[in-house]
Amino acid sequence: MSYKKISLFPDGNSYAYFNDYIKRLVIANSEGILKLVNVDDFDSQPVSIDFLSNLTSVSFRNDTLATTTTEGKLELIDLTKHESRGVIYRSELPLRDLAFINQGNRILCGGDDNKLVIIDLQNDNQYKTITLPDQLLNISYDNTGELCSISLSNGEVQIYSVFNEELNLLHTLTEAIDKKINLSTDNIDFNNEHNDEVYTSKTQWSKDGHFLLVPAVNNLIQVYQRSDWTKVKSFTSDSKIIDYNLSGSKLAILTLNTYKVVDFDSTRTLHEDDFELNEDALPLNIEWENKSSLFIGSTYGDILRLKDVVQGGGATEKDTGASLFMDDLEESDDEFGKSDDQTEVNRLLNHEGEQPNGANGVNGKRLFIDDNDNVDLDDNENSILDDDDDDDDDGDEGGYSRPPPPVQRNGFKKHKASPTSMQPSPPPPPSRFYTSKIVPYSPGSTQFANKGEIVDRRYLTMNNIGYAWIVINKDPGATSSITVSFFDRSMNSEYHFTDLQKFDLASLNQKSIVLGESTKGTIVYKSHNDVGNDSWEKTLPLVKDEYLTSICITNSKANNTIVVGTNLGYLRFFNEYGICLNVIKTIPVVSLAASYGIVLMVNQVTANVYTYTIFDIYQDYKTIQQNFPIPLKECKTQLIKGMFFNEYNDPCIVGGHDDTLLVLQSWRETGNAKWIPILNLHNAITEYGSNENKLNWSCWPLGVINDCLNCLILKNGNYPGFPLPLPVEIDIEIPIKLSKNGKRGDSNGAANGEANGDADNEEMEVDCEEQFLRSLTMGKLLSDTAANYEEEQLSDDIDQDSIMTKLEHYSTVFDKSLIKLFAEVCKQSKLNKAYSIAKLMKTDKALLAASKISERMEFLTLANKIGQLREQLLVDLDD
């Protein structure tokens, strides 16, 4: 071990931080100077950056540094450009701590005014506040679980979920830390009047997010287990703790005169020593340079570097970790001739949707797939490239990295769209070109957000109930975790667990979640409340080249059924306890969704040709619709954007190519089902393109309920990110309009005034037509449900009375829309059109209203014809 004193400041409180992103020691001095030091060359001149004085805290996000001060200011600093970005928030009282959250999209800060402030960096630094029970001391962020722990002056530690736009208080640890009140309002004099403020009150999360470290009373660091917030271990110190820092499995603890490093897992002390600072300087913080060396910040300007305080760290350990992966790559060159190339290729094609060895295939060889889904490897130099390959330099969409071309990710195909025809594509030439591959997909799932970063995440599934998301940690020996959360937290509490399987499939209902790992064929069932310890795991007997492509779980009142589909068309059914109930062979399965026993299955016939099948599990797997064409088309975003059922068991789907919500009408009658468009998502959120501020917005569907699309509005990208916006409801609207409230012409002159009037009349007509068509469409759907009410399971809050009430509402809207449309057409003296509208009316009340309108406008012939329609209606009713 070696010591080095870094004296770059004559005075002031100096905090030491090692920024791994820019590979520099960052020394932040309370006098308002920031220095970036190259630790590999201390003789080089450090970079100096001016910033605000009276520093209280710092937080890093890549090359951006955020600081707070006792003056209540929050400043951003660009460490690459070496300049301040300015103050983005001000508080009347001192700010004490801050943290970047949600992948750097937001900042949390707070201090003496008893408020937690959430600043949205993606939305002009707008902020919201949460009132706290006492002054805020510290903030600690768990990147894997999207949680923040807030230390308060009254000794409490509050745990917030920061996953959504609105923060949610999950738990409070009472009497967890020493009560502490910060009194400094200007320069912080740790050596004298503000001596009590030097002792830590910060909490820290373990890297995997499973544990929370809390500086408890009696010189303890108490470790809480996130799953149930119980104390699982503690670390002791001989005196009051000034700071501590956990890196991997090594915990460094700093006191006034000593420091020690302990093993987090075993609590064994690895190293302990004292240190010396100039004059009466006090230590301020302890920071890991790497896994073996430390920095200590202090008052009176100095920084202490403690090099190689523990064995087996630093660059050597990193190289060793990296070699675990490099050895595999090096061996593959020799082993490819001995092993099965096909097996290796299949593994890579289905490993989290990416090819680890680059977009060109495996170890410099390019992948080719023939008509029989056989995969081969060619050298890149001799490969035949699609023209589409040249189009994959467009950059990321919505902040998500694009996968290697041109493998389809059933969800996510990243090359030019195929022709719009539903006819099968012509067979490829004898040479080995790509054909579409089915990539494991669950409704509501997304791609990984930050490929290339150490920590990455994606949504495994999302629906009206909630969502499951996985965090992958690529550090050697690190584990991944899955979190299950709910939009209605009164029904279930958020929970998480370690993911040892690297699941890539999921399906969620009110009671439980089922997860799948596609390549091994492993499925896991978990109850949300783990009642009766009913969780189980099962590995399916896959045949050669087979892998899971989709899973779903029904949502019945009693026992539910899990359905698992594969790329070779095997369909397996299990009950809640893992008993296999049935196995069916069909064509390759693309995606599955289920409601109360009704299952919607999408299959791939050939490239860009898809069909759907509907069957009823609880009627002995009765097939209701089988292998009928479904209007899906491969595109640059995703094949399927949403797939779910409404509350009346009607299947719904949103295709990625046209962003339109479709509902399946008359599906209970074999051969008579038809897909009806009931909302264009893009038009709905952009106001038919009339609002320039919303043109780049997109919509993520969750489900349909109460004639509304429940969805997320995404202002920055095509996929839900972090934080997750709150769900909103958009009214269903049959897509027959050109624009919303569109005006034609201008305001100059009477002629233009007349043109505007015509446009208004036309707009009103279209509105009436849409209302008529919507009430007719939704009424037919609900009427079908009413006729089959006794045979199907529905939600507890849906009974026959509620169905009849809603049908009456549709009937009223139907009549009113036609009457209004009839009156509007009569104003324009379009009598033939008016009569055609009258013939659409189904009730005597509506026809009577139309007759009175005709008489009032003195269209007596039209009134007589409507009278005849009324007479015929009475005759039909008598029959």
UniProtKB/TrEMBL annotation:
It comes from the Eukaryota. It comes from Candida theae. Residues 350-437, 743-762 are annotated as: Disordered. Residues 768-873 form the WDHD1/CFT4 helical bundle domain. The keyword Disulfide bond does not apply. Residues 440-736 form the WDHD1/CFT4 second beta-propeller domain. This is Mcl1. One of its GO terms (molecular function) is chromatin binding. Residues 747-756 have a biased composition (Low complexity).
